[in-house]
Specification:
Layout (H helix, E strand, L loop, with lengths): L1 H18 L17 H6 L1 H4 L3 E14 L2 E7 L4 E6 L9 E14 L2 E11 L1
Parallel strand pairs: 3-5
Antiparallel strand pairs: 1-2, 1-4, 2-3, 4-5
Length: about 120
């Protein structure tokens, strides 16, 4: 009988935690964790071909028929994002999900970016 009450107490606590709200308005267990732009550009080999989700503001965008890209900034750091879709408007708050890719490396200079898979 004591085991049953203990199990019910644990279940009640889990249900209570699952219904509390986070800053994003989702339940605690559904809160989205964003990857830091600084970490991605500082450690490109660790993130190579890994899926990431970033949040920031669109700083600039370019749409040439064969290549479309835009820069996302978190206020301190920025990263280039390549897309197949229309580029977002400058100044837009955005969440981007995609794979990290080393775009260019010449000697000690390199450029790391994200190939967009989705955004909202």
């Amino acid at each position: 009988m004591k085991k049953m009450y203990g199990s019910l107490a644990i279940l009640a606590i889990l249900l209570a935690c699952g219904t509390s709200k986070s800053e994003e308005g989702n339940s605690y267990f559904n809160k989205i964790m964003y990857d830091e732009i600084k970490e991605i550009i500082s450690n490109p080999t660790i993130y190579e071909n890994k899926q990431v989700t970033i949040k920031g503001k669109v700083k600039s965008s370019t749409n040439i028929q064969v290549v479309k890209f835009y820069y996302v900034s978190d206020g301190e750091h920025e990263i280039i994002v390549f897309t197949k879709d229309a580029v977002p408007l400058e100044g837009s708050e955005i969440v981007v999900r995609g794979k990290v890719s080393q775009l260019l490396k010449i000697d000690d200079e390199q450029m790391t970016g994200i190939r967009e898979e989705s955004r909202n």
